[in-house]
Amino acid sequence: MLEILGPLGLVLPPITGIAAALVPVVAVGLAAVMVGAAITHAHRGEFQMIAANALVLALAAVIAWGRFDPYGFASRASLPRRFSAAPTTHRRPPSSRRRVSCATTNPCRRAPGAG
Question: H-type helices in 17-46, by residue range?
Answer without folding.
Answer: 23-44
